[in-house]
Write a structure and sequence with these properties.
49% helix; globular; Rossmann fold; 2 domains; alpha/beta; two-stranded parallel sheet; Arc Repressor Mutant, subunit A; single chain
């Protein structure tokens, strides 16, 4: 609300087009004040029953148990869907608000971003949605979504740019001191392995990989642990973890490299050899893919000793 009010104020102050001025409402199922985490109360300006037509709906992030919160907020689902289908409203979800947006079915066949912590759960609950794990901002035909936590600020700046223009968005960025044009969340991801499944043999393979990532590991070796063919093992592993075995090994190794770059003074080559890679180009390519930064950029940004050396 503050960012859109700020954009409104900039437009008025600089005599820009009144067509870009938004009427902003904080809309709930009822007007009953909502208390957040026992610390502060939010007062709503209107209910969904009072909003017949709107141009843009921003779905706030869901806090707490996802299934319970979706049930509590389910009245929003048909209202959001109706606004999109009847009035072609644009919709933006912030962080885990993507779950409520996905409940509408409007995201089926479309791409979406959400907090990296919930990626596995989102894939299971909404398999028809194309989840983009690395994105902080995503747009698909007038439906927007953002990565986790405070990255929603980047999506809001993106919306301000679209509706008010780049000049206004840059001004809001400077006044709010929010980094402009930040598009991915890879550097923030902490890979802990996807073990929220019931295939115990696959879990044992995952634990083997995590304990032996610095050694040479091949798919046939892993398949032997489940007494299946390599082809069937790859299919089974991907079904359980949403990664191929090779991708899983890569992610475990890169996560180990990230931790070493954060906490040690080892050279990048020492880190590379320590996590099981011998080829410099391969290591740097995979690191950039999963971490969003080069190894040197990552170390300079997150290693305290190096930062103050």
């Amino acid at each position: 609300m503050n960012l859109f009010q700020m954009a409104n104020g900039y437009h008025k102050k600089n005599g820009l087009s009144n067509e870009g001025i938004f009427t902003i409402d904080l809309v709930g199922i009822s007007k009953e004040p909502q208390t957040y985490n026992r610390f502060f109360t939010v007062s709503l300006t209107k209910t969904i029953h009072e909003i017949e037509k709107t141009d843009l709906i921003i779905v706030a992030g869901i806090v707490g148990n996802l299934e319970e919160q979706i049930k509590l907020n389910f009245e929003f689902v048909s209202w959001i869907k109706n606004q999109r289908i009847k009035h072609n409203a644009e919709i933006a979800s912030l962080c885990r608000g993507a779950f409520l947006l996905a409940e509408t079915g409007l995201m089926n066949g479309k791409s979406c971003a959400t907090h990296w912590v919930t990626h596995d759960k989102f894939k299971k609950m909404y398999p028809k949605v194309n989840l983009l794990p690395d994105k902080i901002i995503n747009e698909d035909n007038g439906i927007y979504s953002s990565g986790g936590a405070y990255s929603f600020l980047n999506l809001l700046l993106y919306l301000v740019e679209k509706y008010y223009g780049r000049e206004t968005a840059i001004w809001c960025s400077k006044m709010s001191e929010i980094e402009f044009d930040r598009l991915d969340q890879n550097q923030f991801v902490i890979f802990n392995g996807q073990k929220d499944h019931s295939d115990e043999e696959v879990k044992e393979v995952q634990e083997f990989i995590e304990a032996n990532y610095s050694e040479k590991i091949n798919v046939n070796q892993l398949a032997d642990k489940t007494s299946t063919s390599a082809r069937n093992f790859v299919r089974r592993f991907k079904k359980a973890t949403h990664n191929t075995p090779i991708e899983y090994i890569q992610r475990v190794r890169i996560e180990a490299a990230k931790k070493r770059l954060e906490s040690s003074t080892s050279t990048i080559h020492e880190v590379m050899f320590g996590v099981g890679y011998n080829d410099d180009k391969t290591f740097r390519t995979l690191f950039k893919r999963y971490a969003g930064l080069t190894p040197l950029e990552y170390r300079n940004k997150y290693n305290r000793e190096m930062a103050f050396a």
